[in-house]
Design brief:
The complex is a heterodimer of chains A (about 450) and B (about 110).
Chain A lengths: L4 H13 L3 E9 L9 H15 L3 H12 L3 E8 L3 H4 L4 H18 L3 E3 L3 E2 L6 H16 L3 E9 L3 E3 H17 L11 E5 L20 E8 L1 H9 L6 H30 L3 E5 L12 H9 L8 H19 L17 H8 L5 H7 L7 E7 L4 H18 L3 E8 L7 E3 L6 E3 L9 H6 L2 E2 L9
Parallel strand pairs in A: 1-2, 2-3, 3-5, 4-5, 5-7, 8-9, 10-11
Antiparallel strand pairs in A: 1-8, 5-6, 6-14, 7-11, 12-13
Helix pairs in contact in A: 2-5, 3-9, 5-6, 6-7, 7-14, 8-9, 8-10, 9-11, 10-11
Chain B lengths: L1 H15 L3 E9 L4 H11 L3 E10 L2 E9 L6 H15 L1 E7 L1 H7 L2
Antiparallel strand pairs in B: 1-3, 1-4, 2-3
Helix pairs in contact in B: 2-3
The chains are: A alpha/beta (about 450), B alpha+beta (about 110).
Chain lengths: ~450, ~110
């Protein structure tokens, strides 16, 4: 059946006026065969493998976006967690490897390369520790390398030794990039229950269960959902859910098609479609504004969690019907600096850090792109991570912390990170100490939820 | 390998039909829009399969379904529309029909 004029107009309106785009096509590449006891050899192999596998990624994605008339904003690469191939490498060599990854990303013209990562949710191996030691410097001397550290899972509990280290690492990384508002921390995310096929940064890595190479896709579309809801200002919440569901279906179908075409042309398997609504700083491309459209005067007020739960669930229901391979994080992202509505909520005092924490109980990720005062103690950062990890662990979901303690900045100041990372109001944190909890260290045992066999 | 086979199959299914594209023209109504657009299509030996248009408060919207089985680069075709865009203040885009099918047909 031919497509009706009104349907064509709808698609064109979504793309041209409502910021519908493919947020990212991310190529996952396994680097396990690059491991070598000779560091120089390994370093060369890593560069060689990434630049040959992803050679065509940018050009193919650009051709596809032109042919289908839908923008693909980012082309990215995710790799095997680097700690797994470090072996006996030294801290200096690990930093060298980060520079190699950065160089590969620049050569290929990709926006980010994710997977300078370690999975330490139960214990820290030799390679993991080398990577953790290298992390602050590695992130401050590179531009496009992203890192994620898994410190907890539902099945293992929370590795508080790792959590303690992460507070210190985040502080150090911020200090090393104080001239750029602690930008290194924007490329570092601490996870509970990470997923292996996430196409979104900074948390993307090519998990151990993945194949040699794969192509994953993430869409964006808060603007489309927002505009769809605006056409139904007086309907009840069941209908609101229905409108979001239908819109999410269409967005996901577009994403899956583009992902499959790019994968086919690159001759690599299509992995998953991540149906998260990823906001940007573009006008009306905000998750917070969707919540406000549902019926909040400002995001963060009473009712925010209910509205977010409704939205997140409707997105999943629509998306799950639209794609056979839904994966990644697939929920609502609430990054503060990348969402104009969230920024406004904080500036006007309706949205607070505690409310953001509560919101992460019902949406996909966590405390994302949050700027806090520069004088925050490492223990408080660790405790913040522990709280998020506990939410994820108990609720059997992914949670994450990407927090930037901006050196020299005080509560209420605005910091600019530039580009897709946006800008954020600096938030104050609870002034009371969590030092004792963090210094106890050890492991928080896996919860009863882990006993499912 | 299983995923790979599946992805090829999916792609083959959407390629079985003719390669068709949607030309969308949006802008202020004026004399000669259709003539200019179809001229470019004719010059490139592109057959028009269907046309629909509406004019709403002086705002012209036209969608054409065209056969691009023989066209190698849609990008080059798009470039030939760009001068018309500038001359007449229009927004002409050509994009593969598959996107519309994916979004509006199950």
């Amino acid at each position: 059946m031919n497509i009706a004029l009104s349907e064509m107009q709808e698609t064109i309106r979504m793309v041209q006026m409502e910021s519908l785009d493919i947020r990212t096509v991310t190529m996952g590449i396994s680097l396990r065969d690059c491991a070598d006891s000779n560091f120089e050899k390994m370093n060369a192999r890593v560069y060689e493998k990434i630049t040959s596998y992803a050679k065509e990624l940018k050009s193919v994605a650009e051709t596809v976006e032109k042919e289908f008339g839908i923008p693909i904003i980012n082309k990215r690469i995710s790799i095997t967690p680097i700690s797994e191939i470090l072996g006996n490498a030294t801290k200096e060599q690990a930093i060298e490897l980060a520079k190699t990854l950065d160089k590969a990303a620049k050569t290929l013209g990709v926006d980010f390369i994710g997977g300078y990562s370690a999975l330490v949710h139960k214990g820290i191996s030799k390679g993991d520790q080398t990577l953790l030691d290298a992390l602050p410097e590695a992130l401050s001397v590179t531009e496009r390398v992203c890192s994620s550290i898994s410190v907890a899972t539902t099945r293992t509990g929370i590795n508080m030794d790792a959590v303690k280290q992460m507070g210190l690492i985040i502080k150090d990384a911020a200090e090393r990039t104080k001239d750029a508002n602690g930008i290194a921390c924007a490329k570092l995310v601490v996870f509970c229950n990470p997923v292996e096929d996430n196409p979104f940064m900074a948390g993307a890595f090519h998990g151990t269960g993945e194949g040699e190479v794969v192509l994953n896709v993430g869409v964006s579309g808060p603007g489309v959902v927002l505009n769809a809801l605006r056409r139904y200002p007086d309907v009840d919440l069941g209908v609101v859910s229905e409108v979001i569901k239908k819109t999410a279906f269409k967005i996901t179908r577009a994403g899956e098609l583009i992902g499959r075409v790019v994968a086919q042309r690159l001759n690599v398997p299509f992995g998953i479609m991540d149906l998260s609504l990823a906001p940007t700083n573009a006008i009306n491309d905000s998750v917070a504004e969707i919540l406000e459209e549902i019926g909040l005067e400002r995001v963060g007020t009473h009712g925010t969690i209910a509205a977010l739960a409704l939205m997140n669930d409707a997105v999943k229901k629509g998306g799950a019907m639209a794609s056979s391979y839904v994966g990644g994080l697939s929920g609502a992202f609430i990054p503060v600096s990348e969402d104009n509505g969230m920024i406004r909520g904080i500036e006007e005092g309706s949205l607070t850090l505690s409310k953001l924490e509560a919101m992460t109980c019902v949406c996909s990720v966590g405390l994302d792109m949050i700027a806090v005062t520069g004088d925050v103690s490492p223990a408080s950062l660790s405790a913040m991570i522990a709280d998020e990890a506990a939410i994820g662990m108990i609720n059997k979901k992914t949670t994450a912390v990407r927090v930037i303690p901006v050196p020299g900045k005080k509560e209420g100041e605005i910091v600019e990170f530039g580009g897709l990372l946006g800008r954020a109001p600096v938030m104050g944190i609870n002034p009371f100490s969590s030092e004792k909890l963090i210094n106890r260290a050890g492991r928080i045992p896996a919860p009863l939820q882990a006993l499912i066999n | 390998m299983i995923t790979k086979t599946a992805s090829l199959k999916f792609y083959e299914v959407i390629r079985m039909a003719k390669r068709r594209a949607v030309v969308s023209v949006i802008g202020k109504d004026q004399v000669g829009i259709i003539a200019k657009v179809t001229n470019v299509l004719a010059d490139n030996n592109v057959n028009v399969l269907d046309i629909s248009q509406t004019i709403l408060q002086d705002f012209f919207t036209m969608m054409m379904l065209v056969d691009v089985s023989e066209i190698e680069s849609l990008e080059k075709l798009q470039e030939q529309f760009n001068p018309i865009n500038e001359e007449m203040g229009l927004k002409i885009n050509i994009q593969l029909e598959d996107l519309f099918k994916a979004m509006h047909r199950v």
